[in-house]
Amino acid sequence: MKTPKATPEVRLPWEISADEIAAILAGSHSNPFAVLGVHKSGDAYVARCFIPGAEEVTAMALDGSVIGELSRQHPDGFFAGQVSVTKLQPVRYRARRGDAEWAVTDPYSFGPVLGPMDDYYVREGSHLRLFDKMGAHWIKHEGAQGIHFAVWAPNAQRVSVVGDFNGWDGRRHVMRFRSGAGIWEIFAPDVPTDVAYKFEIRGRDGVLLPLKADPFARRSELRPKTASVAASELLQEWDDEAHLKHWSETDKRRQPISIYEVHAGSWQRRDDGTFLSWDELASRLIPYCVDMGFTHIEFLPITEHPYDPSWGYQTTGLYAPTARFGEPEGFARFVNGCHKVGIGVILDWVPAHFPTDEHGLGWFDGTALYEHEDPRKGFHPDWNTAIYNFGRTEVISYLVNNALYWAEKFHLDGLRVDAVASMLYLDYSRKHGEWIPNEYGGNENLEAVRFLQNMNTRIYAEHPGVMTIAEESTSWPKVSQPVHEGGLGFGFKWNMGFMHDTLSYMSREPIHRKHHHNELTFGLLYAYSENFVLPLSHDEVVHGKGSLIAKMPGDDWQKFANLRAYYAFMWGYPGKKLLFMGQEFAQWAEWSEAKSLDWNLLQYRMHEGMRRLVRDLNLTYRSKPALHARDCEGDGFEWLIADDHENSVFAWIRKAPGEKPVAVICNLTPVYRENYTVRLPIEGRWREILNTDADIYGGSGKGNGGRVQAVNAGGNIAASITLPPLATIMLEPEN
Hints:
Blueprint: H1 18-26, E1 37-41, E2 44-50, E3 56-61, E4 66-74, E5 78-83, E6 91-97, E7 100-105, H2 116-124, H3 130-133, E8 135-141, E9 144-152, E10 158-163, E11 176-178, E12 183-189, E13 196-202, E14 228-229, H4 241-249, E15 258-262, H5 278-292, E16 296-299, E17 303-304, E18 317-321, H6 328-340, E19 344-349, E20 353-354, H7 375-378, E21 379-380, E22 385-387, H8 393-410, E23 414-417, H9 420-424, H10 446-462, E24 467-470, E25 492-494, H11 496-506, H12 518-521, E26 532-536, H13 548-551, H14 556-572, E27 576-580, H15 605-623, E28 637-644, E29 649-654, E30 662-667, E31 673-679, E32 684-691, E33 707-713, E34 716-723, E35 727-733
């Protein structure tokens, strides 16, 4: 007797195995786009969807016409059925549960947004529009409006975008993997802008990682929340053509540049102690800087960061202006407002390291993706942060694109690059055995060098009006020389030596200064080795260092006199200028990011006098080409008196072709000196254009009555000058 054959199971065209359904429901399917959405099956078309909570589902075309009823294949919300279409196309579902009804447009029925050329340029590292492709962008795609999400996570087993729009359910929007570029993407139809989202990533070992913020997010939630926000494209009517044209056509080395360094959260605050918005800052800070004569505002990092006391230097959102001061459009309006009155905006930029907050870049896809895996190259011992892997093409592209992003989208005038020295040296802050030599056995980080050269080359090529400034504290050669000449390609470098030497000198009691005369003259030996910015920055007034006025010796009168003389010394010295907020009116207290500056001090004569002096120094520096047109060239400086140790007197000439020279004379002791002979290059009357001892600045009012006479005696031209105590004066010929 023969055993009857088993009847083979007949599977309808839209049916799939229970294992595949289970994988979809668990969010672990390796390729949900192969299952969900519309697919051709033989001569028919079928649709499958996963809609948690639904009991019935009707499939419709985007125009609203019904194309089929789907049957429930699993009680958790998996539906499938045949649909009446003639081609693969996007579909929308009408889901019902009891009396409730809602519409869902199927993200799995849409094709990819990115193309093969995107993959190619990403792999090559030459994609200069990543900020338009990665992250979250509101677009119209295949007839529907929605958000396109894209994220780089090449080693992930699965990536989903989760947010307010899908109940933070990682099974709902599992993304499509582009293996050639390591990028995951999905078009999420009907998702509006301004929704919060993150990426849910399952590592290659199947372990679910902490939810990650979007590395390319252009907006973030206000801390302590950490989600990214799907921002609409930045819309700003720019009124800055003249400003951008000026800076793109001029040699910045020969322009007056006086920078006011600002921490946006503590310059001023509202009466209740909360942050000002960008619009409120614009209404106060811009007129203040115009009146004070500064040419640029440099902000401590305003990119998104979770921790206020980091001042922005530990950023988790390199593309997002921090939510502390409002939406990104507010920052764009601020920059536009600055440009309309001729003020440039510089952003403190941090490509050296990033914090290890779990929602940030650290071990982004379960592997060392943005950071170097070896802690000897990937961990920063000073700041307990991760160091970018400068040897990885995608990481370089991420950072270079970020520099281009701020210049293009927000019209920024410059990037001050933080902690360049920590990038350049493999042994920075490391002991023997804690670092890996380069391929030649040296301590130079050749990968970081190539990154900085790449970044500078790209930004100057794309945005010639922008300047990059290196905060580099060592003697690395050619920091501000062009890349084609073997340099790093920066426009300028902070002159840390000037800051250290001059503050060391000025903090000494005047009676001892004659023994340290060279601290003020030594800097001229290297003053033209780079294009320098002279920085009296936030770094000098924090961490127990006190304010600049507090560093000065003597009683209160002498402290103010010393600081006034020092400021005029600096404004007369070759190099661009930078002063941190609050120091222009000699704030006594050390700076704190947690509160506003002590603006009440301006009611007092000495503090208001200091503010007036800084204002007049800026206006003098800008109006006298001799003081700025050769800031970076040796032919613009000549010593008049460099060796008067006993009297602590310094004098020099600043000059520029075709312009009146300016003599700068400093008496850095409290001794009042009459009939002091100073050699001058031109015979005749010289006008005293600035005197830090003037009564209007809080000084004693000593001086030369506004003029001195230079006399030619036997071929030597000199003037007999009165030198006020602890003061700097500036002279220029009348004719």
